[in-house]
Design goal:
The chain is built from five helices and 20 strands. By secondary structure, the chain is α+β, with helices and mostly antiparallel strands. It folds into two domains: 135 residues, Rossmann fold (3-Layer(aba) Sandwich); 124 residues, Tumour Suppressor Smad4, CATH 2.60.200.30.
Length: 273
């Protein structure tokens, strides 16, 4: 169901003048149309009616988040909020902008389409790691577990349903179909079409050359006999002690993009093929 846009939050790439200028431009256009604009720090402007880093205070005031930057900014936007509020991603200063819908030169076209309801929702699964009573932020792309001690190769044990795999390896990546074009593909993993709800398990430097595995988005248990770093979407890092069990499950609320048109090979095209 298409929803009328009454409130918008803007998040930008840090210290990027082009992104900040574009955000100022968008803010002025939306404000003239009586749409309330909230700025997510570090971006601030006198044109914004509200500036707040606490999503809880904004959740009932915004219908859309606009992310201006590269894929890192888009990932930050989704970690900024765990709800299904949609994100419209504009590539400003990103290397490839695989998650983005447009480049900065199409802002006028995009705003006109969105405000007139000419868009659709693109929902993507997210995953979440937990450790006993600790629940980590959701990941749109991937969860990376990598050895903390670079002089020792840990034995990592993977449990899925009633199956157990135990191998010596540097680490492991659990990625969504969205994240299959990130760290996973750089390690030789497959590019999985973004509309498929599945997970890619990609071992890192497995001694026995364990291949990548594609599985349904169900609970996975991972443990290691040495410390691991747990890294979410390449941005948030946490330490996991040895012999602790990490559970990775599907996050109950999907990430939601706003798209203007369907693309058959979006990921492959964005990768430059």
């Amino acid at each position: 169901m298409i929803k009328q846009i009454e409130g918008v939050a803007i998040i930008t790439k840090n210290l990027n003048k082009i992104a900040c200028d574009a955000s100022e431009y968008i803010t002025k256009i939306l404000s003239r149309k009586s749409i309330k604009v909230s700025c997510i720090p570090p971006f601030e402007t006198s044109s914004c009616k509200n500036s707040n880093s606490n999503f809880t205070s904004l959740v009932n005031e915004i219908d859309l988040i606009i992310a201006l930057g590269g894929d890192g900014t888009t990932l930050r936007a989704f970690r900024f909020h765990p709800s299904d509020i949609p994100v419209f991603s504009i590539n400003v200063g990103g290397t490839r902008g695989i998650l983005s819908e447009i480049k900065v030169d199409l802002i006028d076209y995009a705003l006109d389409a969105i405000l007139n309801g000419n868009y659709y929702y693109d929902d993507r699964i997210r995953i979440q790691a937990s450790l006993s009573d600790t629940i980590f932020p959701p990941a749109l792309n991937d969860i990376l577990l990598f050895r903390t001690n670079l002089t020792r190769t840990p034995t990592i044990t993977l449990k899925f349903r009633d199956g157990i795999i135990s191998q010596r390896m540097d680490g492991i990546i659990i990625s969504t179909s969205t994240g299959s074009t990130g760290h996973s593909v750089s390690l030789g993993g497959p590019v999985v079409h973004e509309e498929l709800n599945c997970l890619v398990i990609n071992p890192i430097a497995s001694i026995n050359k364990l291949p990548s595995i594609i599985i349904p988005p169900e609970e996975i248990e991972i443990s290691s006999n040495h410390r691991l770093d747990l890294i979410i979407d390449g941005q948030d890092r946490f330490l996991v002690e040895e012999n602790r069990t990490i559970k990775v499950t599907q996050f109950p609320i999907n990430a939601r993009f706003i798209r203007l048109r369907k693309k058959g090979f979006r990921q492959i095209e964005k990768l430059g093929f």
